[in-house]
From TrEMBL:
Keywords: Signal. This is PAR1 protein. The keyword DNA-binding does not apply. It holds the Pfam family PAR1. It comes from Sesamum alatum. Residues 1-24 form the signal peptide. PANTHER family: PAR1 PROTEIN.
Length: 172
């Protein structure tokens, strides 16, 4: 009886995921700006955030479908947890390879919380790095090795101590 009930629950859960997936079509133009970046439409095309001036001269943001195809991630919106773990911002308009110059950004992108769990963000930066002739896995490996080397220096006492302040003169 218990195994029959367990099987029924698993079957119900699987069917509900299938139906939810069928009904939840992602259309970039229908996404609010705060969900646009790092989303992929059901067609497999990446969503991009664009800005424009409205009639009052203020900047408005809209979500558009780009021509960039992403394999195996159609209909996907990256989670807020991934956005935070990877150190990116949903309000970003455009993207630049200059982010790879920041060791803090690279550390967050290469962290297990981001690199192993956030496919849309990692795929985007993988392609950005490749466009610059850089391998993201190699960049992450170098970042990890540099971090380990720094920890080894700090833990071994091999770090050069900073300047020592001389005692303040006595005023007694």
């Amino acid at each position: 009886m218990a195994s029959s009930m367990k099987f029924s629950f698993v079957l119900f859960f699987a069917c509900s995921l299938f139906v939810q997936g069928m009904l939840a079509e992602v259309i970039c133009e229908n996404l609010p700006p705060n969900l646009c970046s790092f989303a992929i439409a059901s067609t497999g095309k990446r969503c991009v955030l664009e800005n424009h001036q409205n009639a009052r001269g203020e900047t408005d943001f809209t979500c558009k479908t780009s021509e960039v195809m992403v394999e195996r991630l159609s209909g996907y919106i990256e989670s807020d947890q991934c956005v935070a773990a990877c150190g990116v911002h949903r309000e970003s308009v455009g993207i630049s390879s200059d982010v790879f110059l920041s060791s803090e950004f690279t550390a967050r992108l290469c962290s297990p919380a981001c690199y192993q769990n956030c496919p849309s963000i990692v795929e985007l930066f993988f392609n950005l790095a490749a466009g610059e002739g850089v391998s993201l896995p190699t960049l992450c490996q170098n970042q990890k090795e540099n971090h380990r080397a720094m920890l080894a220096i700090l833990n071994s006492g091999g770090a050069t101590p900073g300047p020592v302040a001389s005692p303040a003169p006595s005023s007694f």
